[in-house]
Amino acid sequence: MGFYEIILITIVVAVPAAVVVSIAVLRIRRTRTRGRLIGRRLSPRDDRTIRRNVPLYRCLPQQLQEQLQGLVQVFLAEKLFIGCGGLEVTDKMRLVIAAQACMLLLNRDTRYYPRLKTIYIYPDAFAVRQDSDDGFLHVEGPDVRVGESWDNGPVVLAWQDVRDDAHTRDGGNVVLHEFAHQLDQENGEMDGTPLLPDKARCESWARVFTAEYEALQRRKGGPTVLDRYGAESPAEFFAVATEAFFEKPAELKSRHGELYAELAAYYNLDPAAWAGQGNIRQ
Length: 282
Prior knowledge:
The protein is α/β, with parallel strands linked by helices. The protein has helices at about 5-40, 45-55, 55-60, 60-80, 90-105, 160-170, 175-185, 200-220, 235-245, 250-255, 255-265; strands at about 80-85, 120, 125-135, 135-145, 145-150, 155-160. About 55% of the residues lie in helices and about 10% in strands. It starts with a helix and ends in a 15-residue tail after the last helix.
């Protein structure tokens, strides 16, 4: 074997090894950075911004408020916010979105939405190109939306709806909805079943969610704690159920006890027990 062949083999072997080492170093640094950030508290100004603009934050027990502040610090450090349609992104916008997104990470071993790198924010509802087939019907043209969660990471939000949903507490919340989709797709597909710890939990989840999803599909009228948009697909049902779990927990627990229990076990939270949550009006 010649000298240059030996050099070439050495390079071929060394480069992948160097890549592996570099990835390991980056992961260690990220873990250390997250550890520092998760222990920090928000500044008094930022805390006031969230209290004023995210009423759900005020319902959290003190320990969860402090935990959320650390999660928000990590989220803001790792995610990029980009304004669209001429919108200038402000610190208030970042904080309001981050606080609601991180509600879904409380009390859990979290990966901080690993696929998500960027949040795009429009000032208002935005139009996307629709091109789909429904049986014999082919649909083309613009579709107006207030939020999207893409399977390769980005989340798109309409700021007016983000702001309004945070205050109305009517069971509809675009941030909770789109970030529930982010959790749903952590196992590789958006199918209404997020990552669950074991076979027993998967079986219990499938039984309860299938029954509740089909019941919502059959429902023809009358008031419901679950938005009817959840009947569109299992993925939309999980997102809608998540909205109700955080925004109308007492009502969800009363009317859909098993569904509430599954969500409480997944999120490791019991929002129906938080001060003020049982008296939220629709």
